[in-house]
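Practice problem: p-loop containing nucleoside triphosphate hydrolase protein
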Amino acid sequence: SKIILSNISGEAKPGEVLALMGPSGSGKTSLMNVLSGRAAYQDGSISINGKRLGRAEMKNFMSKVAYVKQQDIFFQSLTVKQQLTYTAQLRISDTIYRKVERQKKIKSEVDKILKMLQLEKCADLKIMMCSGGEKKRVNIGSELITNPAVIMLDEPTSGLDSASSSSLLDILRDLAKNHGKTIVCSIHQPNSRAFLGFDKLLMLSEGNVVYFGALDKSLEYLGTEGYPCPPGHNLADHWMELLVTNEETAMVLSSRKNLEKAWKHDEMTTTMDTIEEIQLDNNGNGVGEKTSKYKTSWCTQFTTLLHRALTKSQVNIFSPVNFFRTVAIGFAVGLVYFNQKYTEADARNIYSYFFFTMQFWVVQGMFESIFSFPQERIVILKERAGANYRLSSYFAAMTIADVPMFLLMPFIYMTISFWMVCPVGFGFTIYLSITCIAFLSVMTGQAFGFLIGAAFDDIQVGQAVGWVIILFLMLLGGFFVDNIPIWLSFVQYLS
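Answer key — structure tokens:
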């Protein structure tokens, strides 16, 4: 087995910005994931305020420390303000504050973050329309809602231009200096201006520390070890040139090994400064103090997630494309089965119409869920890692939020096709009954879609499994084959 991280040590203080640097594959993201509790580790320990964290304390720590991932994961159809507001409603306690006070608290926190991160101009803009720098700030803002003392960011400048990167790092420095935050930031290769803005540097190479200390002293350290930075050269670039593993030249191998050995020797003879105690949240709770995993009750989570889901689904419910598709299919089916008579000869056609209708809405519900779930999945994983809500409250909200669309579309389809197809003897009661069955069919398809989407990460695999299930239900539904083999007869009850 490969050792990804080995003998890593360092410290981060309130009011400081720590840069975590190293070539690709050096272990930056792995270290961030371990420190934030997002990844398991086989050996070693994590301590906060001198207290070693066990499993229970680590879970408590995870819910109180902000971890901003490299990917900006949101529901893109929400506006910036909506994203921050929903996050605040899920993460600001509903037991400490009364209802009116809590709403004021949420509004003030959102407004403060919009101003702090310079997002006021794009507050009402949909996230999909924002620039890369604005999305990154929204990502950070979502984690600042609970006013955490420690903020960890995984390559926040990735994909940003030089100006946007510098602007973002200026904001991070302001959070540290003026708001007392502890900022730990992994970064690949910053420009000279951005690099010199960090307070401390932890340099990694192949999972080992090659330097930790004040950034301004790293220049002197390299000179002492025989690797001086040329005048006018970017210090960050110089570090990368010494450690880069893309070209395993003798010089690179030698410099990397020498720096690793030199740091291990220096580390044995130095002692870290005493770190002042960190309060992990704005209620004064330390890491060892057990608090509830979730800040809000099940009902608060459910109502917030339901409101958010309905806000997102408005695009689909009132989509002209969905409306046109449903109307077109309704008329097409109505024309194919047009004007059936109330006779034994036409009974097979009417039966065929009902069978097609049920099958169509099962397929519709299933594949809409399968195709939409990958985007839902990554957001769920991110928000659940921060203990935003229970899985049960999310599932209940999502299921109910889809009801309006799943009611409206079958209603439109049945209103058009039923009266074109069915004979006069089929009255309004039968119309309502078949419409309700169509509604139940689409809900069943949605449930299958959620099951498949949750079971398979690859959407193509999920799609293939979905079609196998659909064909299974069709073949055993009793329409295509009247006499199923006796040893398969029990399977018809699954369709």
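Discussion: The first helix runs from residue 28 to 35. Students who identified this feature from the tokens alone can consider the problem solved.
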